[in-house]
Amino acid sequence: MTDPRWLNEREQRMWRAFRDMNRRLEAVMGRQLDEAGLSPADYSLLVPLSEAPGRRLRARELRRGIGWDRSRLAHQMRRMEQRGLIAREECPGDARGTVIRLTGEGLRAIEEAAPGHAETVRRHFVDLLTDEEIDTLTAIADRVLRRIAADGRPPG
Amino acid sequence: MTDPRWLNEREQRMWRAFRDMNRRLEAVMGRQLDEAGLSPADYSLLVPLSEAPGRRLRARELRRGIGWDRSRLAHQMRRMEQRGLIAREECPGDARGTVIRLTGEGLRAIEEAAPGHAETVRRHFVDLLTDEEIDTLTAIADRVLRRIAADGRPPG
C-alpha cells in the first residue's frame, strides 16, 4: 500500500465537526419522532409511502429508495404491520413481489408527526443556513452520491 | 400549534440529498471498517483512546466525547474488552470512576484500520470538496452544534 493519505488539519477539523453535527442532529430528530410515537426507521418508510401514487409501493422500490437491505426492511415491515401502520398486498400472479400499502392509521401517524419533524429540521438545521449554503450543500451531496454510485452498486 | 413550517422545494431537495449522502457514506465507511475487522462503534471508541495521553480516558470523558448514553457505552466496552481491544482499570480510591485503557491489541487494530479509513473518507468525501466548501461545511457544522447545545443538554 502507498503512503496513507491522512487528512490535513483543516480537513480533519471539518470531518469531525461534520460527523459530530450529524450525530447530534440524528439524536435531536430521534427524540422528536419518539415524542410522536415513531422511530426514525418508521418515519423513513412512512414518508415514501405517503408520497407514492395510491400510497402503495413495491417492496423492491421501497428498499431501493431508502437503501436498506432485504432483511432489515422485512423486519421493519413486520413491526409496522403489527402496529397497523402498513399492510401487505400479495399479488399471486405477479412475480414482481409484495406491494406495501400505507393504512389509514399509518397516514394519520405521519400526518401527526410531520409538522413537528419539519419544525425540528428547520430549527436545528435549515433555518441556520443561507440560500447559498443550501445550494452548496445540495451540490456537495449530489457530487458525493455520484461518486459512490460510480464506485459500485449502491450499498445495502 | 401554528401553521407547520414546511420546507420549500429548494430546502427539501437539499435535505433529502444531504440525508441520502450521509446514509450512503455511513454504508461505505462501515464496509471498509468491516474489512478491517472493526465496527463503526469500535472505531468511534478506538480513535479518542488512541489520541488520549497514556492512551487512557475516564469512561465519562469518553462518553461525552462520543455522545453515547451510559448503557450503550457499557455494552460496547464489554464487547471490546472481551476481544482484548481495551482494558478497564478500576480506581478504588477514586470516585470519578473507571478508566479505559487502549491495549496493544487495540492499538494495532486502529493502526491497521486507520489508513484505509482515511482513504475512504478522502475518496468519497474530502477529495470531492474545494477548500472553500470545506470551510463552509465547518462553519455550518459549528453553527448547528452551537444551536443544539443552546437548546439543552447535549443528547445521549
Helix/sheet category of chain A: mainly alpha
* CA radius of gyration of chain A: 19 Å
What is the CATH C-level name of the domain at 16-115 in chain A?
A: Mainly Alpha
Largest sheet of chain A: 3 strands, antiparallel
Shape of chain A: globular
Helix content of chain A: 55-70%
Order of helices and strands of chain A: HHEHHEEHH
Spell out the key features of this protein.
Arc Repressor Mutant, subunit A; MarR/SlyA-like (chains A, B); homodimer; three-stranded antiparallel sheet; 3 strands; WH-like_DNA-bd_sf (chains A, B); mainly alpha; 6 helices; HTH_MarR-typ (chains A, B); 156 residues; MarR family transcriptional regulator (chains A, B)
Describe the model.
- Two copies of one chain form a homodimer.
- Chain A is mainly alpha-helical.
- Chain A has a domain at 16-115: Arc Repressor Mutant, subunit A, CATH 1.10.10.10.
- Chain A is 65% helix and 7% strand.
- In chain A, strands 1-3-2 form a three-stranded antiparallel sheet.
- In chain A, helix 1 crosses helix 5 (104-124).
What does the secondary structure layout of this molecule look like, with pairings?
2 copies of one chain form a homodimer.
Chain A: H1 9-35, H2 40-51, E1 56-58, H3 59-66, H4 70-82, E2 86-89, E3 99-102, H5 104-124, H6 131-150
Antiparallel strand pairs in A: 1-3, 2-3
Short description:
Chains A, B: It comes from Streptosporangium fragile. Chains A, B: Residues 11-146 form the HTH marR-type domain. The structure is a homodimer of 156-residue chains. The first copy, chain A, has 6 helices and 3 strands; from the N terminus they run ααβααββαα.
